[in-house]
Design goal:
four-stranded antiparallel β-sheet; globular; mainly beta; Thrombin, subunit H; single chain; 118 residues; 8 strands
Length: 118
């Protein structure tokens, strides 16, 4: 296993979004969302509690969207959407779950297979 990534280093960034003050980067390879101040270009924080399937953990974040104080992240490896507080990174809830195929009885691991109940 290699050395841990530094705060400003990204490995395979997949998506970005902004709220006008901060830039959010889906750091796919490091299983986190990096947050940067757009005015100073400085690293503010990382969102995500490491690689895994627990609340707030990510496996290959690959898409981002902001709505008010909420940051939504497509969590590719867990086949779900995670919602975080964009200001402090607190995980709030997740949407979706892995589903089983009627034909193969295997779990789908694509980002397009979500069942949500909102």
């Amino acid at each position: 296993m290699g050395a841990a990534a530094s705060a400003s280093q990204s490995t395979f960034p997949k998506a970005i979004c902004t709220d006008g003050a901060r830039l959010y980067v889906a750091d796919f390879g490091n299983h986190r969302i990096q947050v940067f101040d757009q005015e100073t270009n400085s690293h503010v924080m990382d969102i995500g509690k490491g690689q895994g399937s627990g609340q707030g953990q990510l496996v290959g974040p690959s898409g981002l969207a902001i709505d008010g104080d909420h940051l939504f992240c497509s969590d590719f490896g867990n086949s779900r959407i995670m919602m975080f507080n964009k200001n402090d990174g607190t995980p709030l809830k997740s949407f979706g779950k892995k589903v089983r195929s009627a034909h193969t009885h295997h779990t789908h691991h694509t980002p397009h297979t979500y069942h949500t109940h909102v």
